[in-house]
Amino acid sequence: MRIVVCVKHVPDIQSERSLQADGRMVRDGGDGTLNELDENAVEAALALVEEHGGEVVAVTVGPDDAVDAARRALQMGAEQAVHVLDDAIAGSDVFGTATVLAAVVRRLGDQESVDLVVTGMAGLDGLTSLLPSALATELGLPLLALAAEVRVEDGAVRVRRELDHATEVLEAPLPALVSVTDQANEPRYPNFKGIMAARKKPVDVLTLADLGIEPQSVGAAGARTEVLEAAARPPREDRVLVTDDGEAGLRLAAYLVENKLV
Do residues 142 and 155 make contact, with C-beta atoms less than 8 angstroms apart? Predict the structure, then answer.
């Protein structure tokens, strides 16, 4: 199997995040990391390749620092990576990003067929969760979203997903696109051998010209969405600070009971 897994470099979710005047997220804080939910996508792809053979290709889009996400995927076990680096991509919304990723998948498919595309369920920066559906539409592939389990058998991919009051099992012929949740697996932590091996693995750097994409069709110029207004969340006013004088536990229990929280 040849699996393309899409990974994103995002600001650390534990850091203080902010928006620029034009509504774009500040990404130069030096605390970027591989989108945590994409680790589940990488793990799902690696597990399938370990079972069926083949290779995993990690693809990322973004400025110079974005390559760190691809290198993390290589450390986990991906065989190669692609980094789309072009100033005109800055400001892309989900549709522009899907356009670029789809072009990479098609380019990889021209070299050798791609059986499966795997993404995380959401990016922890924008949290739109729209990339999987936008990318599947661009590629004309069936989408099996929010998978808690992924299996491949007899030329088809089968996923299980957990809804509030039901469990669904979906199946589609390959090639297809699957997005996985954080319930799908426990991502492996790169060991020393994997980290050293990743240094020798290739990261192909592509531009929009390499992919045949007009610059004005992506980035801020081609965005179909726009941030109209953003404001800091107001401080909560309903918090009660309790100093423990030996009775804090009792007061907390009384609060939970009074508000029917237990």
Answer: no
What is the C-alpha to C-alpha distance for residues 170 and 151, in angstroms, rounded to an integer? 11
pTM for the model: 0.85
pLDDT digits (tens, 9 = 90+) for 46-65: 999 999 999 999 999 999 99
- Please state at what angle helix 67-76 crosses helix 36-52, rounded to 10 degrees: 40
Nearest partner of 89 among 203, 193, 217, judged by Cα: 217
**pLDDT digits 0-9 by tens, 96-122:** 999 999 999 999 999 999 999 999 998
Half-sphere exposure at residue 55, Cβ-oriented, CA atoms within 13 angstroms: 11
Tell me which residue of 210, 172, 203, 176 sits closest to 73, measured CA to CA: 203
Spatial separation of the C-alpha atoms in residues 66 and 128, rounded to whole Å: 19
At 100, list the tokens.
Answer: 């670029």
Phi, psi (5° rounding) for residue 119? -130, 165
